[in-house]
Design brief:
Rossmann fold, 8 strands, Arc Repressor Mutant, subunit A, alpha/beta
Length: 271
């Protein structure tokens, strides 16, 4: 769905926003509204525009710790700037914990988001993708109303970029498909955790972690952990802050990212 709005005068804008807020109120029966953003500005703006907002968090971990209801629908507004995996990790975790049918996601993305990351998020099938720079003049509220009516929304600017990126992907390119658990392992490595720490968090043996890492090296063409992090960054599984976090927290870890190299130049997607 495409939403078009012209330049509005202040009084017209106030009436427009009030009408949208009234519409949203009439649609919210059985819904819990949540915002998750690393930016205080987005959390505050959402709270002002949506008086029905019930939960606010600055990271995926913080949101998962909140007492979200176990029944009804969840509408989650989020960006991709959270330091613990961004929107991809947030959608994955909430769908696993609360069920995919209960959760609807509206992503507010930066217009300059990297192409691989944009396609990566699109492949996770959020219910709405909005350009953060275009969320004014009541557009964000209109997006929320569309999702509450079980519709879907894609910002035209981002939608055009996605089509171009997909069109420019060679048909013969072999896709490397990572499972949810494999992507989680890549993010744990990027977070600077040792094999023992990863095993403890995943509740598996350390040799199991080593075996899964070895399989990931073979699957992605990476020669070591540095190469795996570069592959994850290039294919949208990781963001730059994720990679920086991993390198800074463990200065003794292999950092020969360039030497690691990747034999496969392919796109990471979910099963």
């Amino acid at each position: 769905m495409v939403i078009g709005l012209g330049v509005m005068q202040p009084e017209d804008l106030r009436r427009h926003v009030q009408t949208l807020q009234s519409t949203i109120t009439s649609l919210l029966d059985g819904w819990t509204v949540v915002v998750c953003s690393h930016h205080q500005r987005m959390r505050d703006t959402t709270a002002l525009l949506l008086p029905q907002l019930q939960f606010s968090a600055s990271s995926t971990a913080e949101l998962l710790a909140l007492p979200l209801p176990q029944t009804g629908q969840l509408l989650v507004l989020c960006d991709d700037d959270s330091p613990d995996g961004g929107a991809a990790e947030l959608m994955t975790q909430l769908r696993e914990r609360h069920g995919a049918k209960r959760c609807r996601f509206l992503l507010c993305l930066d217009a300059a988001i990297g192409g691989e990351r944009l396609v990566r998020l699109w492949r996770l099938r959020p219910d709405g993708i909005s350009c953060r720079e275009s969320c004014g003049s009541g557009r964000l509220l209109q997006c929320v109303a569309v999702l509450l009516r079980n519709g879907r929304y894609e910002d035209p600017q981002l939608s055009d970029r996605i089509r171009q990126l997909l069109a420019n992907t060679p048909l013969q390119e072999e896709a490397v498909v990572l499972s949810v658990k494999e992507e989680q392992l890549v993010r744990l490595v990027a977070g600077g955790r040792s094999t023992r720490e990863i095993a403890s968090q995943l509740q598996v043996r350390t040799d199991t972690v080593r075996r899964r890492l070895s399989a990931l090296y073979g699957k992605t063409g990476a020669r070591n952990q540095g190469g795996l992090l570069v592959w994850g960054l290039e294919h949208g599984v990781l963001k730059q802050p994720d990679l920086a976090c991993g390198l800074h927290q463990r200065p003794g870890q292999e950092q020969g990212a360039a030497a690691g190299g990747n034999r496969h130049r392919s796109r990471a997607t979910h099963r």
